[in-house]
Amino acid sequence: MPEYLEDPSVLTKDKLKSELLANNVALPTGDQRKDVYVQLYLKNLTVQNKKIPSTDAFSSDEELPVPVVSNKSRSGRKATRKTDKPRPEDLDVTKLTSEGLKDELLKYGVNVGPIVATTRKLYERRLQKLLDHGPPETVTLPMVITQVDSNHNGNSNSDRYSDKEEEVTTVPEPEPVTVPVVERPVRSRGKTPVTTRTRSSQHNRLCCEEDGGLPLTLTTKAPSHEPTSLLNTALMEEPAPSVHAPVGQSIRPLKQWPLVEKIAAGEQTPSRVDEKDVLKEMFPYETNTPTGINATCRRPIRGAAGRPLKSGDLWTDETLLRSTSNSSYSESRTATVHRVTTLPPSTRLVTSVTPPAGKAVAPPRGLPFWLKLLLLSVVAGFIFFVYQTMETNAMAPFGGSSDSTQTSDS
Amino acid sequence: MPAQCVASHKMSTTSQKHRDFVAEPMGDKPVTALSGIGEVLGKKLEEQGFDKAFAVLGQYLLLRKDGELFTEWLKDTSGANSRNAASCSQCLREWCDSFL
Cβ separation of B3 and A224 shorter than 8 Å? Predict the structure, then answer.
């Protein structure tokens, strides 16, 4: 029987891994801390060293935890784990008795029912899964918990966020903290960021409500599985177009965003590998930027702030039709109030501004105006005709069409 | 994935079959009365010995009303897909809430 080390922490991580693999020990997925491998080594190999066969371990439950505990104390490792589940990895779940299986599952806190023929396989599978994920869980869980605790109290973090923008948090932030994190540094920088935040939030909301152009999508690569409603609405409104947005329309630097971006950038950590993968799936078309922020500029609102109108700037075909027809009208006359009232309110913006230089040319798309008038008259006539036929015979001012129907009615 | 969040508050829609089953004690209803269990799945369950709805209920209770385990079991036993299994699980859970 080969002699295994009592204190495996003298080995390097790679050495530990290879030792474990050489002895058919299942390694946890991903790159774990050395501690993890040390424990695995201890659990599996040092235990064997003591010549306690693993299969008999369950009949002598009392003996098994003791040597493991003593090994741990000997190695001088800090007790990082609060929940101790000293389990040798090389359990063969199928060889366990139902009692043993039940005990194992109970140790993982599973609500176990009776192990009968039909339930056995399920519980074995469940236990196997738990064993595979077991060691990393016990090590990483407390770490996560402490992180969460430290991050929930905003006050304790105020000193972390100094005025230096390059200072990044080394601790990966848990998901729900994303928004408060962004807000906190904003607050710490004084008044202006707050206003930019509110303005940006308003701006964001405006972007979404107006439904025009392409709203600015500030997609940070923070671990945001539950992003704020702002980002939500920004993403939801136009998920497809915003991703494929031809930003080259006219890229105008929006001055209120850079500060927010910088703040958010300051919060980015380079070590967000897992979240990045998820986000990459979500947003496959996002370009890689050093800060992880992609901001697609919003299309400028034509017809606002003195910007000239162009037929290509309008959103829908319908409004395009009406506006182009309207623009040709407004050339001839200035008072377009009565026109405006008949049109949908979205085109009021179009008509109220000085129209572009004489576009008497026929519109590139849509029906010409005379055709529209013709259609209108046809439809109106039809409706009128229908109205007439429905009229009671007492009125019947137009004899021709109603005569034939009167006979059918009476 | 959180991309679809804003207005889509996820409401689970129940089928008529589900509502019918959950509305009264199952008595001697066949296994096909369960939500998510149709002809094909019903036949497979019957082959395994689960010919009545209460037998499947029995299995659900054996698993301590663990939805996850039950769906796993159902998929194994009858070849149900995730949706049907989840539907059946939910159906039984609600039945238990009312009658057990």
Answer: no
- Are A34 and A28 spatial neighbours (Cβ–Cβ below 8 Å)? no
The answer to whether the CB atoms of A282 and B66 lie below 8 A apart is: no
Contacts of A266 (CB under 8 A, 6+ apart): A161, A165, A166, A167, A168, A185
Q: What are A132's two structure tokens?
A: 């595979």
Subunit contact B73:A119, Cβ cutoff 8 A: yes
pTM of the predicted model as reported, rounded to 2 decimal places = 0.33
Residues 3-32 of chain B with CB under 8 A from chain A are: 3-7
Q: What is the DSSP letter of A245?
A: -
Give the A:B interface size as CB pairs under 8 Å: 50
Q: In this predicted model, which residue has the larger pLDDT, A207 or A336?
A: A336
Highest mean pLDDT among A58-67, A236-245, A267-276: A267-276
**Cα distance from N-terminal residue to C-terminal residue, chain B:** 35
CA distance B16 to chain A (A): 30
Q: How buried is residue A264: exposed, middle or buried, by Cβ count under 10 Å (0-12/13-18/19+)?
A: buried
Report yes or no: A108 and A130 within 8 Å, Cβ to Cβ: yes
* Pick among A232, A242, A275, A281 to test the B interface (most B CBs inside 10 A): A232
Q: Which of A147, A170, A184 is nearest to A270 (CA)?
A: A170
| Cross-chain CB nearest to A282 (options B1, B5, B64) | B1
Burial of A50 (0-12, 13-18, 19+ CB in 10 A): exposed
Taking an 8 Å cut-off on Cβ atoms, the answer to whether B62 and A114 are in contact is yes
B10-32: per-residue pLDDT in tens? 556 789 999 999 999 999 999 99
Cβ of A40: how many Cβ atoms within 10 Å? 26
Closest to A37 in 3D by CA, of A3, A194, A46: A46
What is the interface pTM, i.e. ipTM, of the complex? 0.82
Q: Contact A232/B5, CB-based, under 8 Å? A: yes
